[in-house]
Amino acid sequence: MSVRYAILGLLAQKPRHGYELRSAFHAVVGGEETWNVKPAQVYATLSRLAEAGWVAEEGVEQGSGPEKRIYDITPQGRQALEQWFYSGVAPEHQRDEFFVKLMIALVTGDVQPRRVIQTQRVFLYRELHAVTVLRQSYNLRTQLAQVLMIDKAIMHLEADLRWLDMVEGRLEEIQRQPLPEPDIRPRGRPRKVEV
Amino acid sequence: MSVRYAILGLLAQKPRHGYELRSAFHAVVGGEETWNVKPAQVYATLSRLAEAGWVAEEGVEQGSGPEKRIYDITPQGRQALEQWFYSGVAPEHQRDEFFVKLMIALVTGDVQPRRVIQTQRVFLYRELHAVTVLRQSYNLRTQLAQVLMIDKAIMHLEADLRWLDMVEGRLEEIQRQPLPEPDIRPRGRPRKVEV
DNA sequence: ACAGCCATGTAACTTGTTACATGATTTT
DNA sequence: AAAATCATGTAACAAGTTACATGGCTGT
């Protein structure tokens, strides 16, 4: 979803060809190291965007070398892009892998949840240290994307660490009371639900 | 990735069939409303797990009604599961959709980054309010998953909001200096890189 | 000559979603 | 009889990754 609109946005700036879109994406979002968009995805996305009528192939440019298939954004594309810009992005809290891991660890007998939590805590601390060191090497003016991303990473890592502390607190509160089995509701048509 | 190991973990608890795995997943992770795993995914994942040798079909149980194909975890499966439990989950900061949106908004001329930021801020505030209200309706002892998830959501939303403030600060710092175009390096083989 | 960029793709695979298909069972 | 659950799947699609294939241009 992100790459699709990113390509659309870069085409709104000026017409470009696939290879150029890929470099521009890396330049804007923060380099090949942080988000390496594969050529396959760029060309596939361009085809889908063209099929949807959001971009159009403008023609082929041929200098000295291979031909470049130039794409441009359409009016419909511009409209879709604006809608994207001015709509909110919902963070998906629930589809977090560690959350699933923790909940499964709590019901599966032969694993210690506290060790699972501790493993994650150590991991997050290492990550926090790594990005804090990395931060010093970036310059706000020339590497805005990198700086903003690290700011975000730090805040999220701190939030995750505080959450892990909270989880341990909550678990102590309920003190080894096993999770209830899923409540089996009676089969068939349920009676009218009273509110 | 999460669902795969969740199914494995639930089978480590006891042998189950596909339909039961789906209900158990919902019961443990927090209900159909928060993460509705589709039957298609459960059965597809079971096939893949069986092919990998992590689970095995134990046989068919036939009561009054349709047959149930019971699966159980294998020793290899148990090993893989333990490795999963005791390894860290890396949060993916960079593949955040709003981050991409912001960076693209900053280079695309015809959109106001501050309005994009404000839209997201309003969205996050609404979400924060919604989960704060929802929190009151849950009970720690009987709805642990829901409570923990909301704790996490609140902390992340607060982190995101603080980050948005920080972004505006950073943008004022560089005060409408346009982002530099991607630096075009000379083509051909680069000379030896000096460290 | 060779390394490495410029430029385009195809094919296979993974994880997950959506829609469809089938049929038995159970309670109101 | 209708509604809803129990139980299993197939097919098509979307987003993304990995690997492969092709060929020209350019600087050391």
Describe the protein's architecture and organization:
Two copies of one chain form a homodimer. Chain A is mainly alpha-helical and 195 residues long. Chain A folds into two domains: 83 residues, Orthogonal Bundle (Arc Repressor Mutant, subunit A), CATH 1.10.10.10; 80 residues. Helices cover 59% and strands 8% of the residues of chain A. Chain A is built from seven helices and three strands; from the N terminus they run αβααββαααα. Chain A has a three-stranded antiparallel β-sheet with strand order 1-3-2. In chain A, strand 2 and strand 3 form a beta hairpin. The longest helix of chain A is centred in the C-terminal third of the chain and has 31 residues. Chain A is extended and about 70 Å long. Chain A starts with a helix and ends in a 21-residue tail after the last helix. The model of chain A has no long low-confidence stretch (mean pLDDT 88). The interface between A and B is large, with 84 and 83 residues. Chain A binds a DNA duplex (28 and 28 nucleotides) through helix 2 and helix 3.
In a few lines, what is going on in this structure?
Chain A is mostly helical and 195 residues long. Chain A is built from seven helices and three strands, in the order H-E-H-H-E-E-H-H-H-H. Chain A has two domains: 3-85, Arc Repressor Mutant, subunit A; 97-176.
